[in-house]
Amino acid sequence: MVTISKLEIENVKRVKAVKVEPSPAGLTIVGGKNKQGKTSILDAIAWGLGGNKYRPSQAKREGSVTDPFLHIVLSNGLIVERKGKNSDLKVIDPNGQKAGQQLLDVFVEELAINLPKFINSTSKEKANTLLQIIGVGNKLHELEQQEQEVYNRRRTIGQIADQKAKFAKEQPYFPDAPKEPVSASDLIKQQQEILARNGENQRKRQCVTQIQAEFEQVGREVTRLTAQLNAAQKKYGELQSDLAVAQKDALDLRDESTAELESNIQQIDDINRKVRANLDKDKAEDDAKEYGAQYQKLSQQIDQVRQEKADLLTNTNLPLPGLSVDDGELIYEGQQWDNMSGADQLKVSTAIVRKLKPECGFILLDKLEQMDTDTLKEFGTWLEQEGLQAIATRVSTGDECSIIISDGYVEGQEKAEEEQSQTKTWKPGEF
Asked: Where is the region Disordered (predicted)?
């Protein structure tokens, strides 16, 4: 990884003359009061390494008669300079060969010199940045879309199932009603058949009565007509035989009642109403069961998609342990971005920047005064463990600051240079 070894800045924005040797790993804090030149140092580094798109609108220090000067020595031996009226870029590699911005772009990550661009982005944008650099953005997006589609279908099915179950519960049920609606024409036909059979029975009964009367008349005729005894006896015998047969038939006859049919005919509307109510209730219960089964099936699909998402991230080389993406949100140690501590936010940002371009071993951070000293220490320790370099500014003059900027100078640096200049003696041949 490439880091910044030495830095010299003159007459850039508020900086008059500054020399800094940042710690190769960990946190180098540039402290000082407001408007002393702290942020100007970071802007100068961004301009020097990031190209003219980071050139300050007023690069030359106000009131200075000397053009801006930048001299940055990187850990890979490259020397980056900007000087002169146009502050043109000059990059010299360890072998003394000239190079340009294209070489710097190989290992300088844009977010490393412009971290607020990442920090101030939306939660979705942060998550998308992470997903793209680990190479699963498109696949995870497809899974999330699939999950949302199945979830919407399941919600609709669940609503319908609840409606069907509620409708079934509210329907009346009549256990004594038949399973199918009753037909009035069938009942009337049955009634007519019974009446026909009963009419035939009545005809047979009348036949018995007639034979009985005739039999009695003939008997009297036999008594009265002795002369016709033979003929009368023969007739009597025949009638006696017919009477026996008719009586035997009459004894086996049983009349059928039409009372139940007549009652059903009268109550057919009420019966059919109950039948239809029972059918509606059965249908609603069946529908509720069917939609309930569909809901369970869709729930299983959602669980499967979510497991695929989890497996996708689990099997991916994430830039930081405990870092993940859930529902399009960046998650670290179970917390969304707005619930992370300041140190965790910086850890996540730095880790993602490093993942974007592993060759870039430094980041620039502005305005760390919102972090307490314990948080700064925690973040600095993590940087050292990761072998990363951070150059940051903080409105403070405390012990946590690596250097203090005052009126465009590093405190103590100007005095030391003056003393060195005063003690320098003239030697022949030296000018």
From this structure: 412-431
